[in-house]
Amino acid sequence: MTFYSGSLQALPRYTILEKKKCCYCHISQKGGGPLNDAGVYYRNNNSLVGYQEKKTHPKKIVTVQKKRPLKKKPPIIVAQRLKRGMHKTSPQKTAVAPKSQKTYFETLWDKTRFFGNARFWSMIIKGGPKPKTFFMMQAEPGVAVKFLDSLQLVLSYNVPNPLLTSYLQYEFLQKHYVQAGMFQVPFGFGYEDHTAFLIDQLHVGIDTRDLGLMFGSTHDLFYKMSLTFGKRYPEKYEIQPTTVTKSEQVLTANLGYQGQIWKLSSLIGFSFIYERNASSQEYQDRNIEVFDAYGSLRWGAVSLFAEAAFAKDKPTAAKNSLSAYVGLSYDLLKNLNVLARYDGFVEDAQFLADYTHRVTLGGRWKFWKNAALEPYYRYEESFNAGTNITPSDSFFIMGHLFF
To answer: Which domains does the chain have, with CATH numbers?
Structure first.
């Protein structure tokens, strides 16, 4: 029998017996010294059987680190999206190569525009004693030079019938201008085929270039007022005995409206001419007054146009005259249309004794962006004091080249 003393000594053989390390029963991690709960339980019971190990949290080991000096970091710039209406306060400057400045003549060349018109008239079938004819109505190149935004010079010259157009135009208000020089007086629709009959029968000879001054506007409500002096005709111009060849002053006014009327493209205008001391080959020093009204309406592909003029105290034995026409055109295609027109003219001391009228059928074919052909068939009858003069018909072609 072996006897134990009351104080149990921790010996290495207990570690072998209980298969525990010394620190399991001792507080010290190295073993020996004061006992912990397990060591007290083993000392009282000489065994670890039945011992319930308490859950203990391991002690935290605090390690002190040496403070290191903080390095200053550059600030972080975050790109922000600019809100609408905001502007950059300091935009990044980029090097831009300086633009080469144009000279005055280079700038003037950029503001120069060239244009031209050529018209011919050819009689294919002619009724009556006159043979077939060919007539070059116009071959007129021109140039427009814009010195300033409101100042331009226009020059053109008609070669077949030598006529010079030369005027300086200044825009003093928006769409209001004044021009001085040699120009065609503004009257009615203008000197086109559909007004040639009217103008020729009036014998006022307005297709000339007179030296004068004109005020005008290009608004929807437009006006053109001119005062010209003298009247010049080219040497080759075919002048009738009753055509006015000279006049001291010519006052012309043309005003109207061009725009929408009841959703229709419309043009309505009125013209007036007063020629002072007008003379022809037959009569001298007469004061002529011409009143003219014209207009057109367009609805889709259909156009209606008309013009009427009354001339008072013409230099033809103090005769008055009235001429008028009305026409209808229809666009078959974008560049092809057909038309029918009726013309009438009366002139006599009794005013209604003589009467001439004609019917014209024709069309216009724009076969190229700068060229067009206009074939016409015309039937004409004249009555002199109630007597029917031999009627005539003709077929002719007009050509137009423009740029």
So the answer is: 12-45 (no CATH), 109-402 (2.40.160.10)
Mean pLDDT of 239-244: 61
Secondary structure string (H, E, C) spanning the chain? CCCCCCCCCCCHHHHHHHCCCHHHCECCCCCCCCECHHHHHHHHHCCCCCCCCCCCCCCCCCCCCCCCCCCCCCCCCCCCCCCCCCCCCCCCCCCCCCCCCCCHHHHHHHCEEEEEEEEEEEEEEECCCCCCCEEEEEEEEEEEEEEECCEEEEEEEECCCCEEEEEEEEEEECCEEEEEEEECCCCCCCCCHHHHHHHHHHCCCCCCCEEEEEEEECCCEEEEEEEEECCCCCCCCCCCCCCCCECCEEEEEEEEEEEEECCEEEEEEEEEEEEEEEECCCCCCEEEEEEEEEEEEEECCEEEEEEEEEEECCCCCCCEEEEEEEEEEEEEECCEEEEEEEEEEEEECCCCCEEEEEEEEEEEEEEECCEEEEEEEEEEEEEECCEEEEEEEEEEEEEEEEC
Q: State both tokens at 312.
A: 């008072």
Token pair for 162: 């030598």
Question: Are the C-beta atoms of residues 290 and 276 closer than 8 Å to each other?
Answer: no
Rg (CA), the chain: 54
Residues 30-54: b if buried by 16+ CB within 10 A, e if exposed: eeeeebbebbebbeeeeebeeeeee
Q: Whole-angstrom Cα distance, residue 226 to residue 228?
A: 6
Highest mean pLDDT among 20-24, 81-85, 245-249, 305-309: 305-309
- Asked whether the predicted pLDDT for residue 341 surpasses 60, the reply is yes
Q: Record the pTM.
A: 0.66
Residue 17: CA count within 13 A, CB half-sphere: 10
Sequence-ordered list of residues with C-beta below 8 angstroms from that of 1, at least 6 positions apart, any chain: none
| 260-270 residue pLDDT tens | 988 899 999 99
